[in-house]
Each structure stands twice: as C-alpha cells, then as structure tokens.
TrEMBL record:
Gene3D superfamilies: Bira Bifunctional Protein, Domain 2. It comes from the Bacteria. InterPro entries: aa-tRNA-synth_II/BPL/LPL (IPR045864). This is Amino acid--[acyl-carrier-protein] ligase.
Amino acid sequence: MTHETLAPEGETPLSPAAAYRAALLDAGLLIPTGVDGLYGRSETYEQVVTALEQSITRLSAADRPEQMRFPPLLSRQDFLASGYLKGFPHLAGTISCFCGNEADHRRMLACIGEGEDFSQFQQPADVVVTPAACYPIYPVIARRGPLQAGGLVVDVSSWCFRHEPSVDPCRMQMFRMRENVRIGTPDEVVAFRNRWLERGAAWLERLGLPFEAALANDPFFGRAGKLMADGQRDQELKFEMLVPVGSVEEPTACMSCNLHMTHFSEIWPLTTADGAMAHTGCVAFGIDRLTLALFRHHGFTPTSWPAAVRAALFG
C-alpha cells in the first residue's frame, strides 16, 4: 500500500512517514490531539490491537507465563534504581504536582494568566511514567525470594512513555508494549531468546508482514552511551524485527528479542533456586507499531485483509 507524498503547491513535500500519518488521520484511524506523537485511536484501530494481543497470548501459551498487568506509572524509587536516567535521560518522563497552599495557588494562577512558567509551583511526585513494560516486574519478583527450579516467564503489558515527539506515527510518545520476560539461568534465558527469534519470525510471516531480523542496540545517550551501544552489539544482546512502515529506507523495529544478562539482578536481588544471580531476557512487541504495520501492508479495512492474515490474528 502506498501513500502520496505530495504537499500543496509551494510547500515542502511530506516525508513518507508524515504522509502515512496524514493518511491514518484522514481515515480516522488515528485521532489528532495537537501534539506530535500523541493520538486517540478509533474503534477499528482498537479492534486490531485486541486481535494482536489475543494472537500474542496464543503464541506465548507454550511458555506458560505468569500474567501481570500494571498501570503506566512506576514508583520514583524503582525508576531511579533502574538506572534508566543513566542511559536514556532524553526519553524519560517524570511527573510533577502542585503541593502548595492557597497563596501559592493564587501565585501559580497569576503566572498562568501572564503566560509565564509556573513550574516553580510544582514538586516531583513519587511516581514517574513507565518507560518500558517490564520495569515494574523485577522488584516484585525479587521480593518473592529465590526462583523455583526452571525459573519463570512473565507476560506483562503496559502503556509506556518516551519523550520523542515526531511526525512518524510509529514514534509515539505514549504507546503500548507487550513483553514476555524470562528470568532464570544463563542457558535458560539464551534458549528462550533463540526460540523467540524463530517463533517471532514465523508469526510475522503469518501476519503477512515483510521484515528483517537485525542486530541492534538501544538508543543510549551521549558519549558513554555509544560505548554501551557498542558493547550491546558486540555481545549480540539485542535483535530487532524491522518492518517497513513509515518508510522502506528506514524500517521500524516492531519486535525485539533481548538478553539483559545480570543487569536487573544487580539492581534487585533476583536469584535462581541455587542462590546464583539470575539472568533475564525478553521478547518485546510494539503493539501500536505492529498495528500500524498491518494497516500499512494490508489496507485500512481489516475485513478485506487476506484470509490467512485474518486467521493468524482472529483465530
């Protein structure tokens, strides 16, 4: 499916990603809010999201995961402990609240009335916006004590926030992420990641989505971040399933298969049955990106999608 990139005469032509966003907005699948990367979703869009979630549940059943669901907020204490600000300060979203008295309230309203900055009247809350669906589970599992023999798989899903406003509809500021997280011995976690590389590829093929599995790294910040990214690639810790959505030249990571090694166990006491430091890894699904990929490659009317795709989605 293609989208026009023509702009009104005298204006700069739209990029392929911006043109796709315009088509989604025109079709009513995405609903504008006036903020790049923040959208409402239509009934048709949400029907596809629901079908994707159910398909992932069926796909994951063989691993017998424990299901957990959290609100899109994380305690500030756990967020700071996670080290997220060391690697991704440019993506983090913290929350501030008014905690003053009536006089402070009047002064704040006066600032707002004058169009001035009122942040001096806000104080950090004890929660932040969740940056990745898996973050809440590690302290929860650690508080249980050592894992049982064989470790654990957790199925977790959440709305997540990352501060990267963009005209690319795949780069949303608020989006849904589904993850299956494996916690166990190094061999158990590597085997889990490798199984999902194969399982995820076969699933994307059934969904009729063209993709490429590629070695990747997270978008770490700054000079130190480059060293971290290089180390991640050298150790082959992250593979992404890249699907052309907004553009063919710059395909979008719609899934990833990751090894965290002992990163989270060094923060929270995650231990195996024999008391050793546990390893973790995950397969992550970008629910909104996968939804946009399906619309991009099969059209905006799901009832007209190929029968094999509908069977893979709707069972």
